[in-house]
Amino acid sequence: MSSLSLKNIKKSYGQHEVIHGVDLEVEKGEFIVFVGPSGCGKSTMLRMISGLEEVTSGQISIADKDVTRAHPSKREIAMVFQSYALFPHMSVADNISFGLRLGKTPKDEVKRRVNEVADTLQITHLLERFPRQLSGGQRQRVAIGRAIIRNPQVFLFDEPLSNLDAALRVQMRLEIARLHKRLGATIIYVTHDQTEAMTLADRIVVFNHGVIEQVGRPIDLYERPANKFVAGFLGAPSMNFIGATAQQGAIQLDGFNITDAQKAHANGAITLGIRPEHMRISDTEACDFSAKVELVEELGSESLAYLQTSFSSDPLTMRVDHSITVREGDMLPVSVNREFLHVFEEGGASL
Amino acid sequence: MNQSNTFWRVALLALPLSVFALIIIWPLLSSFYYGFTNWNGFSDNYDFVGFENFGKLFSDRLFMSAAINTIIWMAIAVVLPTVLGLSLALLIDSHVPGGPIFKTIFYLPICLSAVVVGQVWVWIYQPDWGLLNTIIEYVTNDRFNYAWLAKPDSALYSVIVAWSWQATGLSMVIYLAGLTAIPGDLLEVCELEGATTWQRIRHVILPLLTPATVVVVALSVINSLKGFDILYIMTGGGPFNSSDTLAMHMYNESFKKYLMGYGSAISVVLFLVALTIIRLYFKQLKKVDEIYG
């Protein structure tokens, strides 16, 4: 059974179309992450699923029921906001039980369910406190609690970790992953943080300019990006792109011995894509090219070396193991792992 | 450099401070002083009478009725402009057609002086051709010439309505600012949770407007204590002192009966009441800040 189905969803503000026809099927229990740069339409899409934003055309179904024009409260969804959206004048217990109390649920049942949820999220000791007395992480847990208590078909998370500091973000990310496993719930999660996307998602949906660029398992998107945009968006540091020309599959590049990297369909102007981890320092005789180290960033477990080459105007980023010392100004012989070379045609599609 | 900075700081502060001292602090302290004398307002000869003026307050029938009228005024001032201002703000905030125009119209009375407002309402209440009686005649289709401002039963309330008409604009603007400050996502939570309009107002908007309500109520109460100018224009405290307030009574005793010492004692009482209310206001404001700040 499909938990969520989007059919040709379009959204316009006046004459300006911002979502240009989105199709997506989400299975029950799937963790789907919408990623993309700011203004790509991912949050608008989430708000349309929630009903807070109207759809211009297309159809949204939740649990096989058409909810395109249904009121947000009738869609069997629950949403967690980036700002937590907790009521400052209500205790944690009252915040969590807000919806139940509006629906005049008997007091005993409200109490029982609040305790259940608080137990799941380990916030029982916070129930009597007010949001101002909680840390960012605790507030986010309360916001999640308010979502869980609704027992929805689909959970919607709108950049829920963006307001937390880096350490807490990692911790909450793990908790959300655990929660998903425990509840087996369908989750649509919006983020611009690709680490969150890669670590949490069963499938990632990459948005750009109001269209879906690619949908797939995180590792598939990483290894086999459909186009230059997806390739550049996923992975940190991002993929190196080098402009080149190809003739009958053979790639021509000044000072870069890559003639054996045959791409049968490549012809004319192309872009070569190399991830930073697919380059390494090699023997002078066996190297593909030599490059001058412009800058080194020490990250502890590894270093990032920015390389000046004769064939690329932008410096290339290369991961270097922390055991190897690289200095600025060094000339390095570099070889590229041919197996993981990406080639994109002029329009950006992967070849 | 530092020395010349200090000089300029003191110099620039000195002017406003001396003006403030001259027109606020000095008269305030003087009225405290005169409250303990039997000064008539112009003579050089007066005696120190201790607490006599203050003792007299308790036996002064007119002071008591003025105090009761002031309490009535305060009570209505807490309710009327607050409820009306809030209702108008909610209505305008709900994007009714013509909202911005109505916002300007409802705010306009604030720009008028109390004297002008008083005179406009004197015309509205005019028994023979005033707007109010004309409307009542039109609706009931019967002759109606009740003299609103000339009857002891209605004079005070009629003035309070006129005063509230002016105060409502200010409450509305404060509430509108409060409504703008409510985070949109809290209202979206209401929508997601299926709250009705009334539930949204009752459980979310009203509590979140508490900071605005504290300001509106405090301003209404403090302004009602000062209620003098509009009263002076509309009834002068009459008929038969039925619309006298403490401020009006103080004026009558000081400047009509030339009992400046006794009038000062009344002003001291008024000052202490205002001080108590302002203290309560700041206490409440602190509490509100802790929750919503």
Automatic annotation (TrEMBL), chain A:
Q: Which family does it belong to?
A: Belongs to the ABC transporter superfamily.
Question: Could you tell me which PROSITE patterns the record lists for this protein?
Answer: ABC_TRANSPORTER_1 (PS00211), ABC_TRANSPORTER_2 (PS50893)
Identification of the protein by name: Carbohydrate ABC transporter ATP-binding protein, CUT1 family
Cleavable signal peptide: none
Residue ranges annotated for the ABC transporter domain, each copy included: 4-234
Q: What membrane topology was assigned to this protein in its record?
A: Peripheral membrane protein
User: Which one of the record's GO molecular function terms can you name?
Assistant: ATP hydrolysis activity
Which species is this record about?
Pseudovibrio denitrificans
Q: Which NCBIfam families match?
A: PRK11650.1
Q: Name one GO cellular component term.
A: maltose transport complex
UniProt cross-references to InterPro entries, sorted A to Z: AAA+_ATPase, ABC_transporter-like_ATP-bd, ABC_transporter-like_CS, ABC_transpr_MalK-like, ABC_transpr_MalK/UgpC-like, Mo/tungstate-bd_C_term_dom, NA-bd_OB-fold, OB_MalK-like
Keywords tagged on the record: ATP-binding, Cell inner membrane, Cell membrane, Membrane, Nucleotide-binding, Transport
From the Swiss-Prot or TrEMBL record, state where the protein is found. Answer: Cell inner membrane
TrEMBL record, chain B:
- Could you tell me which SUPFAM superfamilies the record lists for this protein? MetI-like
As for membrane topology, the entry says: Multi-pass membrane protein
Residue span of the signal peptide, if any? Answer: none
Give the UniProt entry's GO cellular component terms. Answer: plasma membrane
Biological processes annotated in GO: transmembrane transport
Domain (ABC transmembrane type-1) ranges:
67-281
Compartments, as annotated in UniProt: Cell membrane
Residue ranges crossing the lipid bilayer per the database entry = 7-29, 71-92, 104-124, 155-182, 203-222, 259-282
Where primarily located?
membrane
The answer to keyword Nucleus applying to this record is no
For the keyword Transport, the answer is yes
Which keywords appear in this protein's UniProt record, sorted alphabetically? Answer: Cell membrane, Membrane, Transmembrane, Transmembrane helix, Transport
Which PANTHER family does the entry mention? Answer: ABC TRANSPORTER PERMEASE PROTEIN, INNER MEMBRANE ABC TRANSPORTER PERMEASE PROTEIN YCJO
Q: In which family does this protein belong, per the annotation?
A: Belongs to the binding-protein-dependent transport system permease family.
* Protein name per the record: Carbohydrate ABC transporter membrane protein 1, CUT1 family
Organism of provenance: Pseudovibrio denitrificans
